[in-house]
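Pasting two entries for a bug report.
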Amino acid sequence: MTVRPIRLFGDPVLRSPADPIAPDALGSQGVRDLVQDLLDTVREPGRAGVAAPQIGVGLRAFSYNVDGEVGYVLNPEVVEVRGERELMDEGCLSVPGLSYPTPRYPFARVRGVDVDGAEVVLQGTGLMAEALQHEVDHLDGTVYVMTLDPEVRRGALRDIRAQSWFH
């Protein structure tokens, strides 16, 4: 299919909660095309995850590319987090060139379905835990900079406004 362009911070699609994919739409050519586009887009170098809103599609789907494992999940929900939240140096394709200390749980588990409706469970620690939380945040209409400590967030928003890509 296609490597899709990434929507940047400020685009309204990134602030809107994504709609679930209806059960009767699973298996459709449209959903299969979306999944393929997400997989093609996340395979670009330096990408750990891509949520559908980041490519302009307001549906609950994301792809991941962590430690050589590439996959996707539809209608994901975080079903478990464990441990004390830790600050992780986090970036985002929708906020290119910037990263900030972001509180994340060291373990996360997500449950959803694949294109045929079969259950998918993803879980992990480290980068996988961070990616799962980050991508589900996107599906909930939250870009990670909005979750930062208020003082850090003020600085991040100043930095974003100074970027050439921000309009």
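Entry 2 (this is the one that rendered wrong in the viewer):
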Amino acid sequence: MKIKEIIVVEGRDDTTAIQRAVEADTIETNGSAIGEAVIERIKHAQEKRGVIIFTDPDYPGQRIRNIVSERVPGCKHAFLTKEEALPKKGKGIGVEHASRESIRAALKAVQQEMEDEVDSNITAEDLIDAGLIGDAKSKLRREIIGKILKIGYTNGKQLHKRLKMFQISKETFAQAVVKMKEEEQKHC
């Protein structure tokens, strides 16, 4: 599998894992203190070939994703679940621990960020009604719906923003809520 876009990852181990799974070029941010030179390389890559942001499913990875996304509009996003990013042995969480199959699946399900956010008609009330905010099981539900919609895990505040950013329609959201409720039953 060959990837046209340049994939933005956190470090060398992520590059190694990506290149074991697919044929692709990467730009490494080398942590969350992303320098101006790295941002310029990413902007150039976005203009020439497009960019896929593929960071770890943890706080630092989300922080890097937000910085790059804010500074380089129109990026695509690939997400792994925390389970897919856990090591077989030892500690840590990251792209470097994911299987080839998980990396390929995440890259096939890439989401396009839209520069002009469109109102998806999904309201905060819809999120509350679905139990995604303000409920004891909200965190689990957001993990499940993030996996179903392939938009990654978010906290309650960020979920609404991400639904709009990826232009998830109200119908798609409603279908995902049904699947989420079925999946939630398996966890209980």
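Dev reply: Rendering is fixed now. As a check, the viewer should reflect this: The first helix runs from residue 12 to 21.
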